[in-house]
Each structure stands twice: as C-alpha cells, then as structure tokens.
Amino acid sequence: EVAQYFVEEAGKKDIDIGFDLQPAAVAGDSFLLRDLVDNLVDNAVRYTPAGGTVTVRCLRGAGGGALLEIEDSGPGIPMHQRAQVFQRFMRLDDSIPGSGLGLAIVRDIAQAHGASIELADGPGGAGMVLTVRFPA
User: Fold this and answer.
1) Eight-state DSSP code of residue 22
2) d(CA 41, CA 37)
3) What is the C-alpha to C-alpha distance for residues 44 and 12, in angstroms, rounded to an integer?
4) Facing residues of 133 across strands?
C-alpha cells in the first residue's frame, strides 16, 4: 500500500519498479512501519538512475519472521561507507536532494521492532539490496 505512490515517481524517471509481495505478519506500529517502507523505497527510486530498476519484496523469513527487501540498480554504497549511511545527516551524493535522515530513521524504526538491516551488493555486483529482517 505504501509503495504504490512510488509507481508514479518511478515512472517519471522511466524506472521499472516491480513488486514481489507475499503475506508476512509483523507485530508493530503500523505508522512507523509505513515510514520505514516509505524511506527505503524513496531512497531506491531517488538514487536509481533513469532507465534503472527497483524491486520491492516482502517475504516470509525462515523461522516465521518477515523479510522486506529493496533491490535497485543504482550506484550502490561502497563497503567502507555502509555503516556510516545510518548516521544522521550522512549523504553520499550531494547532487541529489535529501536531508540525510532517511536511513537513520529506518535504523531507529527497525531497532524498535527488533529487526536487523543488511546491505549487500545487487546481482552481479551492481546496485544494492537492502534487507530488513523482522523477528517472528
């Protein structure tokens, strides 16, 4: 539901945005969880260049938890900067509008829900896959 807004935003940049959404229950604050999804999809669409791809996945995790994955074909985040992007006001590309608060907010919401966040290279080393693992 939250990600639907970004279909139009992705269309403005000719980004192919796709969804693989399976039912997966997460106990928590629905307002905060919507904010988490909003920040993650916004970042993926914002940083993916025109003609790229963004995929949003919701899956049941092993052991009954839930996984939220955002995969994009953007520039990715260098390994040595991955921990830093969760700090407030951290920006890797000043040419793209933003405040540098999105991933700090995501981190705080994930922690409040007992979830962990992983950053990995996308398929073939291009882009990025961000995974939020929610406990059962």
Assistant:
1) -
2) 6
3) 14
4) 67, 116
Token pair for 133 = 């693992």
Question: Whole-prediction pTM value?
Answer: 0.86
- 114 CB-near residues (< 8 Å, 6+ apart): 134, 135
Residue 7 CA to residue 36 CA, distance in Å, equals: 17
Name residue 15's amino acid. I
Which residues partner with 59 through β-bridges? 67
Residue 81 contacts residue 97 (beta carbons within 8 Å): no
Alpha helices (runs of H) in the chain, residue ranges in sequence order: 5-12, 30-47, 102-112
Tens-digit pLDDT profile for residues 98-127: 555 678 899 999 999 999 999 999 988 889
